[in-house]
Specification:
The complex is a heterodimer of chains A (297) and B (116).
Chain A (H helix, E strand, L loop, with lengths): L1 E3 L8 H8 L1 H7 L4 E5 L11 H13 L3 E5 L3 H9 L18 E7 L4 H16 L9 H22 L4 E7 L7 E8 L4 H9 L5 H9 L15 H12 L2 E14 L2 E21 L21
Parallel strand pairs in A: 1-2, 2-3
Antiparallel strand pairs in A: 4-5, 5-6, 6-8, 7-8
Helix pairs in contact in A: 5-6, 6-9, 7-8
Chain B lengths: L1 E4 H5 L3 E2 L2 H15 L5 E4 L5 E2 L1 H7 L11 H7 E4 L6 H31 L1
Parallel strand pairs in B: 1-3, 2-4, 3-5
Helix pairs in contact in B: 2-3
The chains are: A alpha/beta (297), B alpha/beta (116).
C-alpha cells in the first residue's frame, strides 16, 4: 500500500488531521507493507516527527511495516539533522545553525529515561548558543514548562514511549520554538471522564484540564499546577498551545481559544507548545508570600 | 539540625520528576517522624518544577501527621534561587486546598457508606 501525502504538513489542525487519518486508513488495509510517499511534501514542520513516530509505533504494533520514501531535499535534510530518519537507514547531517531539536523517544517506566529526558533538554536547548535569545530567565521559564509537560505525559499517560521533537525558526520575527510531546497512554477524555464520573467529550475534557486548579490526580501527591503554569506562561509569552487528545483539538493563540473535532480519534495525547523567543519581557511568578519565608508552611 | 542536600538525594542539579520529589519526601519524613528538625538545602539546583515540589513538599500535607506550625518549626528550606521561591508557596497553598477537598470528599463518601 502506497500513501502519497498531497501537500505540506504543518503544525496546525489540518496537519494533525493528515497524520492522524493515517491510522484508520492503514489499519483497515490487509497489506503488511506500507509506503509513505513524501514527494508532494515541500515543507514538513520537523517537530511533527514526534507525531509521525508515534503513529508508526502504533502501526508497527499492529504488524505493519512502514517505509518512508521520496523526500524532497529540504525535508530530508531537516529530518536527518534532527535524527528522525536515522532509524530508517539515512545518515546524520550536522546541524551548523543549531535550529533543529532532535527527535527522541523515552520510556516512562524506565527511571533512567527521566535522566535521559533531562539530558535531552540540556543538550537540545540549554546548551544552544541562541537559547535563550534574550535572557537566561526566559530560557529557564521555557525549560521549566517543557519539564512540566513531560511530567504530565509521564504521570497521566502510562504508555510505552513518550516521543519528543522540536524545531526552532530563528529567522522569523517571533523566533518561534516549537516543542511537541506525544504519549499514547490514557487520554484526557478517559482521565477527566473517570475523575468527574460522567462521560464528557474529548475537547471539553481538554478545556476542563486547562482550567486553573483542575486536576485528575487523586492520590497522595497533589496536582493542578503544571498545565496552569504552562498556559499562563504561553499567554504572557504570546506563544501558542495546541492539545490533541482522542478526537479533540484545542488551541490557544493570541488571546483566542479554538475547539475543533478531528475526523478520527488519536488514542493518546499530543501537546505542542510554541514559544516566542523574541521576547524582552521580564518574567516573575507573582506570589505574595515569598517575603515570609520563615512561615512558609 | 540535620542538613539534607537535595542535589545529593536526587543525584541531579535539576529537580523535575515526581519520583525524584518522592525520594526527597521520604528523606524529610524520616527525620520529622522522629521529631528531628531538618534543613532542606537546594544549593546548585538550577531548575525546579511543581511536579517535583508536589511530591517533595506538597505530600507533607497528605495526612494530618504534620501541622503547619510543626513544619514551620522543624523544616527549613534554604538556598532556593529567588525566582523559584514563589513556586513553594504556590505548591503549598495548592496542596492544602487539595488535601482539604480530598478529605471532604472521603468524609462524605464514608458518611454515605455508614448511612446505609
Amino acid at each position: 500500500m502506497i500513501i502519497k501525502f498531497e501537500d505540506d504538513i504543518k503544525t496546525d489542525f489540518e496537519g494533525y488531521q493528515k497524520l492522524i487519518d493515517l491510522i484508520p486508513r492503514i489499519s483497515k488495509s490487509i497489506e503488511k507493507e506500507i509506503i509513505l510517499d513524501f514527494s508532494n511534501v515541500f515543507f514538513f514542520e520537523a517537530n511533527l516527527c514526534a507525531i509521525l513516530a508515534t503513529i508508526i509505533e502504533i502501526l508497527e504494533k499492529n504488524g505493519k511495516i512502514v517505509k518512508l520514501v521520496n523526500f524532497n531535499n529540504r525535508v530530508e535534510t531537516i529530518l536527518r539533522k534532527n535524527e528522525f530518519l536515522i532509524s530508517y537507514g539515512y545518515g546524520k547531517i550536522f546541524d551548523n545553525y543549531q535550529t533543529s531539536i532532535k527527535y527522541r523517544k523515552f520510556n516512562p517506566a524506565d527511571k533512567k529515561d527521566d535522566n535521559n529526558f533531562e539530558d535531552y533538554i540540556k543538550e537540545e536547548l540549554l546548551s544552544k548558543n541562541d537559547f535563550p535569545s534574550h535572557s537566561k530567565l526566559l530560557g529557564k521559564h521555557i525549560t521549566l514548562r517543557i519539564f512540566e509537560l513531560y511530567e504530565n505525559a509521564r504521570t497521566h499517560g502510562s504508555c510505552d514511549f513518550i516521543h519528543a521533537c522540536g524545531q526552532y525558526f530563528p529567522k522569523r520575527m517571533e523566533k518561534p520554538l516549537n516543542v511537541t510531546i506525544v504519549d499514547t497512554g490514557k487520554n484526557f477524555q478517559e482521565n477527566v471522564s473517570e475523575f468527574l464520573n460522567e462521560t464528557i467529550s474529548a475537547v471539553d475534557a481538554i478545556e476542563w484540564a486547562m482550567k486553573k486548579g483542575n486536576t485528575t490526580k487523586t492520590g497522595d501527591i497533589s496536582g493542578g499546577l503544571g498545565l496552569d503554569l504552562i498556559f499562563q506562561f504561553i499567554q504572557h509569552n504570546k506563544g501558542k498551545i495546541q492539545i490533541i487528545s482522542s478526537d479533540g483539538f484545542w488551541e490557544w493563540h493570541r488571546g483566542k481559544s479554538t475547539k475543533m473535532i478531528l475526523n478520527n480519534p488519536f488514542n493518546g495525547t499530543i501537546a505542542n507548545l510554541r514559544f516566542n523567543l523574541n521576547d524582552n519581557s521580564h518574567y516573575k511568578l507573582v506570589e505574595e508570600t515569598d517575603d515570609d519565608w520563615d512561615n512558609l508552611f | 539540625m540535620s542538613n539534607l542536600i537535595v542535589k545529593n538525594i536526587i543525584d541531579s542539579d535539576i529537580a523535575v520528576a515526581t519520583d525524584a520529589g518522592d525520594k526527597v519526601f521520604n528523606e524529610i519524613v524520616n527525620y520529622l517522624s522522629k521529631n528531628k528538625s531538618v534543613t532542606l538545602d537546594f544549593t546548585d539546583i538550577s531548575i525546579l518544577t511543581t511536579a517535583f515540589l508536589n511530591a517533595a513538599i506538597g505530600q507533607l500535607y497528605s495526612n494530618d501527621k504534620f501541622s503547619s506550625d510543626f513544619l514551620n518549626d522543624n523544616l527549613k528550606v534554604i538556598n532556593v534561587q529567588s525566582e523559584d521561591k514563589p513556586l513553594f508557596s504556590m505548591v503549598i497553598r495548592r496542596a492544602k486546598e487539595y488535601f482539604k477537598d480530598k478529605k471532604g470528599f472521603e468524609d462524605s463518601a464514608n458518611s454515605a457508606f455508614y448511612d446505609k
